[in-house]
Amino acid sequence: MSSDKHDIDEILAEMHSQLLSYLKKSNISEPLIIGIQTGGLWIAEKMRSSLNIGSPVGELNIAFYRDDFSRIGLHPRVTPSSLPFEIEDRHIILVDDVLHTGRTIRAAMNEIFDYGRPASITLAVLIDRSGRELPIQADVVGKRLALKTDEHVKLLGPEPLALEFK
Amino acid sequence: MTSNNIQLDNNGRLKHFLTTEGLNKNLLLNILDHAESFAGVGDRAVKKVPLLRGKTIVNLFFEPSTRTRTTFELAAKRLSADVLNINIAQSATSKGESLQDTLRTLEAMHCDMFVVRHGSSGAAHFMAKHVSPRIRIINAGDGNHAHPTQAMLDMFTIRHHKKDFSRLKVAIVGDIMHSRVARSEIHALTTLGVNEVRVIAPLTLLPARVETLGVHVFHELEAGLEDVDVVIMLRLQRERMRSALLPSEQEYFHNYGLTEKRLQVAKDDAIVMHPGPINRGVEIDTHVADGERSVILQQVSHGIAVRMAVMAMSMGSLVDKQEEKT
Q1: From the CA of A142, how many Å to the nearest CA of chain B?
Q2: Which residues between 275 and 314 in chain B have a beta carbon less than 8 angstroms from any beta carbon of chain A?
Q3: Is the CB of residue A60 less than 8 Å from the CB of residue A91?
Q4: Is the pLDDT reported for residue B242 higher than 90?
Q5: Which residues of chain A have a CB within 8 Å of the CB of B40?
Q6: What average pLDDT does range B20-46 have in this prediction?
Q7: Are residues B295 and B305 in the same domain?
Q8: pLDDT at residue number B145
Q9: Sign of the four-CA dihedral B300, B183, B91, B82
Q10: Do B45 and A114 touch (CB under 8 A)?
Q11: Considering only CB atoms, which chain B residues are within 8 Å of A69?
């Protein structure tokens, strides 16, 4: 089953308003936005336009930072990471589609630090689902879902964005 | 098992990288694509990714080399591997045996990958055949046989400038006979489906029946360079003069040296490549080597990305559970 487009827009609106108040509360101005490929990138683009952020979205491909290389080898070809800005001392909004085990976010933060030392990182996700394996939590969550281990949610896109449940 | 698929694991992934011969187009493109992803690492504040953390890579050089060894070393370090450089002066006696002994010794040190440069053709194959299944071999040049990472970094450079292989005319100029680079390039270029591969050389520097590799043979530089998109110059080794294959350096330059004037018959946007080190005034004129069509220095930096790709791919194939049991 797939949710209709309407749901996604609602979730995005929720993310937007949470993100606004979070940035305000934390006194963050002129943040940079980085999306994790591929779904996180689509959401990051939405957030960038709704927040009117001038810089382009940074793209992170964490394939070289995954913790399962010694188990499954090199991932098939993915577009390289591209952060078209200096991140040193900047506030970063890190965006992903689904927060699950937390391993992707750990890998993403490791990679970000190889580009420089940001002033802060705010984690914003479309879906926060159960199943965390690391002490990582999102600051901004579009929607929380309690799913069993064998249940999966995936973001389809980029046009239109839709959630797929399995 | 044939000598070619010793390079692949049970899932068709790159295991050892010994030659470009017999690898399919997809795999070669895969190497280039991965290299593309790795290329950006060199531009970052921290020029390292943690992919091969905790692995030990041995540069095993039985023949002197500076640029190949250095770029392999940099590539390994950018993948966070530990690197050991071992230079072994080649002993003439019973190479087979001594090579095997060297292997056993290094295996006992729990190394994970050997990057091998050897004066004898087939040395890397020999090692791949005899090494324990946990260890990966990368050929960094064996005799006159193959130099696959050099060929792939040249393919990377060509694709970087020309995007599509299928319409290209590529000329390889110089000592084809003794060149492992030329052989590996010819296999890679034909597999990647370029329109035409030409070899340009005097008769004495061409291997017998070179046409069977799918190339067109030219003995005259101007004729061979006409309308080409890519010119790959090969280094002329001075020993060739002594062995009487060539009369003199001056005469070689007169007939086969690449000058701006001769380059005029090539396409306007033709690029000039050379695996280095270059002999200025022997195979290539200084103005061409430093000229705007020369991509010789880019080749060097691309070499790091390509070697990272090959090392990561080959080490990544280590994880086949089935294979580990054997």
Answers
A1: 31
A2: 312-313
A3: no
A4: no
A5: 80-82
A6: 92
A7: no
A8: 95
A9: positive
A10: yes
A11: 51, 316
Interface test with A, best of B17, B34, B160 (most A CBs within 10 A): B34
User: Sheet containing B169-173: which strands, arranged edge to edge?
Assistant: B216-218, B196-200, B169-173, B230-233, B271-273
The mean per-residue pLDDT over the stretch B115-143 comes to 94
CB contact under 8 A, A73 and B30: no
Sign of CA dihedral B242, B243, B246, B252: negative
Question: What's the domain range around B257?
Answer: 148-299
Residue whose token pair is 């890190």? A94
Do both B124 and B189 map to the same domain? Answer: no
Q: Is B49 on the interface with A (CB under 8 A)?
A: yes
Q: Is there a contact between B51 and A64 if contact means CB atoms under 8 Å apart?
A: yes
Helices in B6-52 by DSSP H: which ranges? 25-39
Chain A residues whose C-beta is within 8 A of a chain B C-beta are 61, 63-65, 69-74, 77-82, 88, 110-111, 113-116
Say yes or no: B257 and B166 in one domain: yes
The set of residues, in sequence order, having a beta carbon less than 8 Å from that of A132 and lying 6+ positions away, is A99, A100, A101, A102
Does the residue B16 lie in any domain? no
Question: Does residue B15 fall inside a structural domain?
Answer: no
Per-residue pLDDT of chain A (166 residues; tens, 9 = 90+): 454 455 899 999 999 999 999 999 999 999 999 999 999 999 999 999 999 999 999 999 998 898 888 777 787 666 788 898 999 999 999 999 999 999 999 999 999 999 999 999 999 999 999 999 999 999 999 999 999 999 999 999 898 999 999 8
Same domain (yes/no): B126, B155: no
For residue B119, is it within any domain? yes
- B33, A72: Cβ pair inside 8 Å? no
Q: Determine, for residues B319 and A74 on separate chains, whether the beta-carbon distance falls below 8 Å.
A: no
Q: What is the pLDDT of residue A66?
A: 85
Residue tagged 């050991």 (tokens) = B84
